[in-house]
Amino acid sequence: MDWKSLLSARETGTHFIVEGQLPVERLQESSYLVEKIIRIGDDISREEASSLLGFHFHRGYLAIARKPENPPLSAMSEGTLVVLPEIADPGNLGTIIRNTAALDGAGIILGKGASPFNAKAIRASAGNLFRLPVRRSPDLLSDLAELSKTHTILGTSLSKDSIPICNLPSISGKIALLLGPEDFGLSGTIESLCDQLVHLPMSRGTDSLNVASASAIFLHELRKSFP
Question: Model confidence at 207, in pLDDT bands (50, 70, 90)?
Fold first, then answer.
């Protein structure tokens, strides 16, 4: 394995890198296949690591791991399942992964957009990527059709049919929470597949929050109302 070339690439079709002591420790505790742990100062100098990575690297550890098999829908456990049809920013994605893990979420399903194995996403997840099933859907509409058999599908939306999350009627069984892209929200096609549209009541003329911030509030509300 040419691990220095992998550091320079940062993510390939089969491998990804992990930066920092806590994420590396959580990687080692997981079922992921770790191919190399790199200690800055022992295996490589800080200057060379920074040159390969393309930015000033100040952490003490790096790791190279193999990407796991894409988990099936059946791998998602009990709890609210978070579905992201399209998310562009890897930092937001990583924070949503962290929020989902912290608030008893069942897992993440991704459509288009950022990779969960992007180094920025892994940092923002604080290593929780390795504790939670994250599925890259090959066909999101098919996945949603399958989920509709077992889950109540909630879509976050500001449309006229949306209700405040605090007014959501009692739900029995599993929930899939759909969060739209940062800029334009859920598409009309996706909204039509939802059993209910919900939103967060806002004040002072603000109509929305950053999607990562909103995910924590929605997950907290669902956890509080439907433990």
Answer: low
* Cα–Cα distance, 71 to 26 (Å, whole number): 19
pTM over 0.85: yes
- Using the Cα atoms of residue 123, residue 120, residue 185 and residue 206 in order, give the sign of their dihedral: positive
Q: Does the pLDDT at position 8 exceed 70?
A: yes
Token pair of 36, please?
A: 């190399």
For position 201, what pLDDT does the model report? 87
pLDDT of residue 204: 67
Torsion of CA 118, 99, 77, 138, to 10 degrees: -40
**pLDDT value at 227 more than 70:** no
State which residues form the domain around 62: 3-66
User: Which residue is it, tokens 């999607």?
Assistant: 211
pLDDT on residue 160:
87
Q: Can you point out the beta strands (E) in 130-173?
A: 134-136, 151-156, 163-164
CB proximity list for 160: less than 8 A, separation 6 or greater: none
Show the beta-strand stretches assigned E in 71-194: 81-87, 107-113, 134-136, 151-156, 163-164, 174-178
Same domain, 121 and 165: yes
Looking at the structure, tell me whether residues 157 and 53 fall in a common domain: no
